[in-house]
Amino acid sequence: MSLSPEVRQRIESILQENRVVLFMKGNRAQPQCGFSGQVVQILDDFLADYATVNILADPEIREGIKLYSNWPTLPQLYVNREFVGGCDIIREMAQEGELEKALGIERTALAGPKIELSANAVQTIQEAIEKSPGASLSLHISPNFEHSLGFAKDVVGKIEARTQGISIFLDLASAQRANGLSIDFIDTPQGKSLVVQNPNQPNTAKALGCEALKAKLDAKENLLIYDVRSPDERKAGYIEGSIVVDQDVAQAIEKLPKDSALVFYCQDGLRSRSAAQHFYESGFANATYLEGGIDGWIRHFEAAN
Amino acid sequence: MVQIRNLSKNPNSDFAATIEAAIVKALPDSKVTLSAGSPGHYSIHVISQLFAGKSRIQQQQLVYAAIAHLMAGVQAPLHAVDRLQTQTP
Fold first, then answer.
1. Fewer C-beta neighbours within 10 Å, C or N terminus of chain A?
2. Do A84 and A24 share a structural domain?
3. Quick one: pLDDT at residue A36?
4. Domains of chain B, CATH where assigned
């Protein structure tokens, strides 16, 4: 039993292309095993971005990585093409404060992310600070760019951003997502509400061109293609294998793994862009839409024939 | 040098001996202690001079490389190593 050159090559190109890679069961949004989940949770505190490989979807890599690493279990973490360890080791490294260095995080590069507060925010925050003696203002930014501002007693190891006389403490991963942030508070019937603008947030669902979609279909990539038109419009032509989106389908999509590759299309690309954007904002990073819609698709491929 | 704990009481002892032999083959000076957990699960403790100067992961990789053939595939006789400890004498 040995590692075939093809699989070795595949693993090495994954490691070449990604500085930090976690080979795991499931994905970052939905780990499929407790050990993988623990490692994701730990890494999420340290890194804004890292790659994951779902070995459940790839039996070749699943067996191959064990041989490649001389390590029989998953998950497995690689940094700069070096094997770092599995769940136990990563947990220990995190506890002993070794993980940050192993992940190649440079605090000096993260120091003092630039954060801007509106006058309203300064006032609201200062009032809150006065009511919370002994606690420090801390900001957490989740992988999906949900921002939460609160008070924490313990800020050891956190990154401090100082702005307009106020110190805000961020965990390492949040600090990586925070530069250029602006914070405001608006008055709502429910009280003051936090409004954050974060330029680091990738905020639009990607468009797919006809050729790009065709290439994915030809490669038999795992795509879910949704037609957001009415059944009537569909009579004029549709993409093979696409699913018409009604209320039930829309709810079913919400329950899919967040890294599912979703492609929406409509007649001309407008409605599908809103649909893709909607799911993108609810955490589907791979929600895309067909640029130009079915009209563009038909034009493109009929013209080609 | 090989030590097997609870040799007589352990129904997996034949297989435990196989695991130890595989480790000793790769690390000839090693002292191996095994304890069986649930079926197919073992905890392994290895002491070897060959670990000197290596990181904990490198030490464990040496052991795993030695027993990889027993752990391969879904029906592997060695299903899981619950705990692997390595140290120098």
1. C
2. yes
3. 94
4. 2-87 (3.30.300.90)
Q: Give tens-digit pLDDT for B27-36.
A: 999 999 999 8
CA distance A115 to A136: 16
pLDDT lower than 70: segments of chain A: 1, 203, 303-305
Structural domain boundaries enclosing A145: 108-197
Is the pLDDT at B62 greater than 60, yes or no?
A: yes
Contact list, B67 vs chain A (CB under 8 Å): 72
Burial class of residue B73 in the structure, from the number of CB atoms within 10 Å of its CB (0-12 exposed, 13-18 middle, 19+ buried) = exposed
- In this prediction, residue B12 carries a pLDDT of 54
| Residue A3 Cα, gap to closest chain B Cα (Å) | 12
Task: Say how far apart CA A93 and CA A171 lie, in whole Å.
Answer: 17
> What pLDDT, on the 0 to 100 scale, is given for residue A133?
87
Quickly state the pLDDT bin for B8 (edges 50, 70, 90).
very low
Looking at the complex, does the CB of residue A66 fall below 8 Å from at least one CB of chain B? yes
Identify which of A300, A297, A143 has the alpha carbon closest to the alpha carbon of residue A225. Answer: A297
Q: Give contacts of A69 with chain B, Cβ < 8 Å.
A: 61
Whose CA is closest to B34, among B16, B51, B52, B49?
B16
* C-alpha distance from A58 to closest chain B C-alpha (Å): 14
B79/A contact by beta carbon, under 8 A: no
The confidence score (pLDDT) of residue A303 equals 64
pLDDT, tens digit (0-9, with 9 covering 90-100), for A42-84: 999 899 889 999 999 999 999 899 999 989 889 999 999 999 9
Domain match, A221 and A277 both:
yes
Domain end point (choices A42, A74, A105): A105
3-state secondary structure of B84: strand
Cβ pair B61:A67 closer than 8 A: no
Contact state of A67 with B60 under an 8 Å Cβ cutoff: no
List the 87-106 stretch of A: residues with Cβ below 8 A of B.
89
Q: Backbone dihedral region of B73: left (phi > 0), alpha (psi from -120 to 50 degrees) or beta?
A: left
User: Is any Cβ of chain A less than 8 angstroms from the Cβ of B69?
Assistant: yes
